[in-house]
Specification:
The structure is a homotetramer.
Chain A lengths: L9 E4 L7 H17 L4 E5 L4 H7 L4 E4 L16 H6 L4 E4 L8 H14 L2 E6 L2 H8 L5 E4 L13 H14 L4 E3 L7 H9 L4 E4 L1 H4 L4 H17 L2
Parallel strand pairs in A: 1-2, 1-8, 2-3, 3-4, 4-5, 5-6, 6-7
Helix pairs in contact in A: 1-9, 5-6, 7-9
GO molecular function (chains A, B, C, D): triose-phosphate isomerase activity
Organism (chains A, B, C, D): Streptohalobacillus salinus
Keywords (chains A, B, C, D): Isomerase
Amino acid sequence: MSKPIIKKPFFVFNPKSYLYGNALLELANVADHLAEKYPISIFVTAPFADLSAISKSTSKIIVTAQHMDGIEPGRGMGQVLPESLHYAGARATFLNHAEHPMTLSNLSKAIIQAQKLGVLTIACADSTQEAKAIAELKPDIILCEPTDLIGTGKTSDENYINETNEAVKGIDSEILVMQAAGISTANDVFRTIELGADGTGCTSGIVKNQDPKQMLIDMVEAAMHAANTQ
Amino acid sequence: MSKPIIKKPFFVFNPKSYLYGNALLELANVADHLAEKYPISIFVTAPFADLSAISKSTSKIIVTAQHMDGIEPGRGMGQVLPESLHYAGARATFLNHAEHPMTLSNLSKAIIQAQKLGVLTIACADSTQEAKAIAELKPDIILCEPTDLIGTGKTSDENYINETNEAVKGIDSEILVMQAAGISTANDVFRTIELGADGTGCTSGIVKNQDPKQMLIDMVEAAMHAANTQ
Amino acid sequence: MSKPIIKKPFFVFNPKSYLYGNALLELANVADHLAEKYPISIFVTAPFADLSAISKSTSKIIVTAQHMDGIEPGRGMGQVLPESLHYAGARATFLNHAEHPMTLSNLSKAIIQAQKLGVLTIACADSTQEAKAIAELKPDIILCEPTDLIGTGKTSDENYINETNEAVKGIDSEILVMQAAGISTANDVFRTIELGADGTGCTSGIVKNQDPKQMLIDMVEAAMHAANTQ
Amino acid sequence: MSKPIIKKPFFVFNPKSYLYGNALLELANVADHLAEKYPISIFVTAPFADLSAISKSTSKIIVTAQHMDGIEPGRGMGQVLPESLHYAGARATFLNHAEHPMTLSNLSKAIIQAQKLGVLTIACADSTQEAKAIAELKPDIILCEPTDLIGTGKTSDENYINETNEAVKGIDSEILVMQAAGISTANDVFRTIELGADGTGCTSGIVKNQDPKQMLIDMVEAAMHAANTQ
């Protein structure tokens, strides 16, 4: 099946397990309006059981799972079935996040299953070496996030961004590179895109903000602004 | 929050990851009619992303997740958030299934979270010793399934059923005991309830049957019949 | 096979993966002299591949593995084989430490294998509820260590110690209870034994001390002193 | 530190957890004689706690661990410390075996630690795609073993051997490729080397043989013979 086309720069709103139900739905709807207004791809993640509701309520965002297992329909009790995610409307999934590390074997199989179903894959690496290994598995996006920086409010510097871009695109020039370490303000978003990331995203900078909707709007507009100045 | 009341004997239709989408929904609707017709609790499991659709389409069955993590809203990227399952309509969850074994710590926390949300817990043990350990965590139901028998078509014998019943209820008499090893025919269901199990259930005996709907009906009616003869 | 007899109060020197080779051997020899001098059981843990050397060089300490899997000789590539540990001289093992959490199934099987081989088991719990579940598996010692306190320098308070003692011994009065949260000085050791722990132990308070040998001596003597004042 | 030099074709005797203690030591000594007699590298794996004894008793074989974690000295309770393995005499380690799959992150870090210590790495892949990903991490040897064939007695065919050789050496021509699926006779060893594998190895074909010593000798000599006919 055909996958969604990614319009660069892309922005990922990843509320992890901070949000569910109505609170998540409201922010997904804000993101949906932004994805209609601007020529930019916006991914919104949701807990597995929320994917269906988010998908039914939106039409422009790319509804994204937080994880997916590399299994086919069968036993797999308690695992995350790709077909079920796709049926619920998910069109992308994170894989191998530092909070849910995958075995190489499961990661490899999950990318193959996603490809068959038309689900975009965002695979996480916490070093340039890992990013190169993952690039051989041909996901759509690699998130290069030095684990040490997660939650510190420090963003990846220019050297790291250039190094990972070169490492990944040297293996497969079609893979997009996402940089999201320490994004906590709209200015971080602007700077990261300006430095050469294909996309970026945010969790706590939005969900812990006093006004999450406004911060989401500001960040998406900062990504647009950075793209226009390039 | 209050949990559903379990009417004995209960029956668990657990299609694992064999089914999703419409095929699963149709069987869930059959189960819902049976749960209306008979004074028996019927649990139907679904992949996480299918829970919401099953829940919206049914009213009598107990919609059941295949797994749940012992986390609270927060980071937990890729994990199975209890609040999200409950919001989607799940009122029960399996825990520690042999195909998704949990650490003792995660199992313990998941049972606590489920209790807070009013979600019933079906915790799996593959020996009498494990069943006793789990009984101290006070789940609602313990599934005593000797791992060696899963998928073999051999049911637990009377000794094993008595032994696990005594072991579990000796620790907490309110915990229900489910026996489901090797249930492949309606007669297996009848015999297992007759031998003293509080409930039973089935996966491949239904999903791999030529006529899954009829087999589901037959099994639920066999459970009823066994209850009436006691 | 017969297990070593535990002389109370016991002390566990657990250098985790901080030490290996000669540095570890020297401290193990210090512990061996103390175990000869005082009527107290001293457990010394070592990385798996160091167990043999420690065992050959000592005679009074109880050489202890950091983990063991619940397997029998066979495939199990990369797992920690009980028979191999025992052959190398280990006579005790930690299980389910917060840095290496075990599935309930593996934990249950490991305790059974250890019992067969005459290897003492020290199983870790991070809540009273978990301690009760583990007590049903009948390990020799339960380490009750609220995970939140590990590495903070805060010790468990009297309430927690009493509560876990009662919870564990209420299920099986022969299980010993170890309390080791936040032990960083000899005084912490004294106080913890005085408050009713059957034993205690230490990692960073010793290995990060300027004079690890002296701190080890001081702690063991504090345990002796506490025992004598009871 | 400098790593051992690998003399092709190499042979890996991998008794997994089938053997420990004296039974393992005797076969390791047989392998040591063979490694002296023939210009071939012989790796012999051992459970962690047996490594030290095997290493002390042999001088020509490459003593090999079954697994190693990507950690540095520090906490890591229950994990497999690289420094401890090296101190015990291990000069190689398997990584990511199908019976002990590793997260990509742990695998990547383990290869880096091994490199620092002068420990050879044999990393397992169960598909060509995985082999390519692992090749980017630059282990010394990649074992290409279609998981489905493990223990079936079926060997990899010529196509699979050529395909994996090209895939791996296309990324890094210095990485050696091991093929070991279904090796159960000396003739399997001969044929696999003849078809182009840099090395091969065996578990159950040796340990379950009536005369394991003779089978070990026959297999090593078959590898030599295949090398001489090339």
